[in-house]
Amino acid sequence: MQTLPSVSSCLKSTTVGSGMISVFITNLEKYNEGKLIGEWLELPTTPEKVKQFFKQIGIDSVNYKEFFLSGYKSSVYGITNYISENSNLNELNYLACKLDELNHDEMEIYEAAIDIGVNINSITDLINLTDNLDCFQCLYNISNEYDLGFYWIAESGCYSLKELGNLTNYFDYERYGHDVALEQSGTFYSGNYIYYTGEIFSSDYDGKSVPEEYNVLNYRRSLE
Hints:
The protein has 224 residues and is an alpha+beta fold. It has two domains: 7-132 and 203-222, Roll (Ubiquitin-like (UB roll)); 135-196, Arc Repressor Mutant, subunit A. The chain is 38% helix and 15% strand. It contains ten helices and six strands, in the order αβαβαβαααβαααββα. It has helices spanning 7-12, 28-32, 47-56, 89-100, 104-116, 123-129, 145-155, 161-164, 173-184, 219-222, and strands spanning 21-27, 38-43, 67-74, 136-139, 187-189, 192-196. A hairpin with a 2-residue loop joins strand 5 and strand 6. It is elongated. The chain starts with 6 loop residues before the first helix and ends with a helix.
């Protein structure tokens, strides 16, 4: 009986590029025939590049049509937790395009929001998150619970230190910051503190129809 090389052994020998998301696409029918044929594809990409890519791995829309994602990596924290071998390539490209539009500060808030986990259960949610970053507040240069407690008590203007008088000398800023972080479900990320404000997310993408400009997997357009 022919032994098929493991997908993992192939992935280890392959270098992933600098795309927002990289997926290892394997020719399913060749795989079932006992041949492991696949390559890394970086996202975002274009229909033209996908057309050429599929030719390289033998997908011609006639004899070989099916593929699966046997590996996936991302330069963005937390993304791969929501990718599977059956993920929609158009949807992943849509997500990669949206991520590519974020600046450095927005990306840090985005990654922190994934860590917080509010309203994040799917690729659809990750796409919609890119348009809802204003639902998160970032307090810069606050990297621990003491800093957070000190900010809210001494710097935010929420409390009058004059009224507290000498009690401020005995205040446990760290414990207060701990309680605030728990209450807000906030997270310390990259030297800052980020929390969800409680605003309702907008859901412009319904998870069903990827906008045409992000579609890369269309056999009629990409392979013929």
